[in-house]
Structure formats: C-alpha cells, structure tokens
C-alpha cells in the first residue's frame, strides 16, 4: 500500500514538472528549480553535440533560468508518455518516460530516466536525471 502512495505522489511531481517546463514560455523557472535536490546529478546526451553533458544542482538551475529567458514568448509544448514509476524504498523511486518537445512546426523526442527522493522536509525532489534527446525534426 505504501508503494501505491509513492507512485501517486511521484506521478504528481512528474506532471507538475511538465507544466513547469511549458511555463518557460512565460519566463518562469523559479518553482521548477525548487524540485531539484541540492544533491542533484544529471546527464544529458544531445546527438548533434556527440557528448554527454553533466549537471549538478547549481548548473541545472542556471540552465532552467537560461531556458526560460530563451523560450519566453514562444509557443512551446511538452508531452510526456509511457510514465513508469518503480518505488525503490519508502522515500525513493525511479521514473522513466518519453518526452516530446514541440515548438511551432519542430519536434524533438527524448527518453528520460530520473530518481526522485522524499527529502527531510517531506517534499519529493529529483536527485538524478539522465536524458537521451533525439534530433530536432
């Protein structure tokens, strides 16, 4: 029964994150930045660069600020599908899903793997993240 509660709580965080990504179009990023643990470690693979980028908490938060500045006033959409949540403990769960990013007539698909942890203040935050992005079409 505990794991069902964890799945529901984490799913709410994932769908809130999707909404917050779309808020980049309004220049907003502050709430999103509260969803990353101070212990955050992330990796992103972008095919045209041919390498994996590494991020800590400070870097991902700065990247979100830059993205909000870049996408402000633009029509963007994020669609998440295939959400899978695997509770690992009472305070941690692994998450995966496909993400589609749309901007006007362009689209990019990616696959995201995340680990979320319930921290001492009772809030779920992302601790680890790995994403494989496709090519912008």
Q: Could you explain the architecture of this structure?
A:
This protein has 137 residues and is of the alpha+beta class. 29% of the residues lie in helices and 48% in strands. The protein is built from three helices and six strands, in the order H-H-E-E-H-E-E-E-E. The chain has a six-stranded mixed β-sheet. Strand 5 (106-118) and strand 6 form a beta hairpin. The longest helix has 21 residues, at 2-22. The radius of gyration is 15 Å and the shape is globular. The mean pLDDT is 93.
Topology:
Blueprint: H1 2-22, H2 30-33, E1 36-46, E2 51-56, H3 57-71, E3 76-89, E4 92-103, E5 106-118, E6 124-133
Parallel strand pairs: 1-6
Antiparallel strand pairs: 1-2, 3-4, 4-5, 5-6
Entry summary:
With 137 residues, this protein is α+β, with helices and mostly antiparallel strands.
- Biggest sheet descriptor: 6 strands, mixed
- Averaged pLDDT, please? 93
Radius of gyration: 15 Å
Strand order of the largest sheet: 2-1-6-5-4-3
Poorly predicted ranges: none
CA-CA gap between termini: 43 Å
Beta-strand residue fraction: over 45%
| Helix and strand element order | HHEEHEEEE
Overall shape: globular
- Number of H/I helices: 3
Which percent bin holds the helix content? Answer: 25-40%
Query: Which class do the helix and strand fractions yield?
Result: alpha+beta
Overall strand count: 6
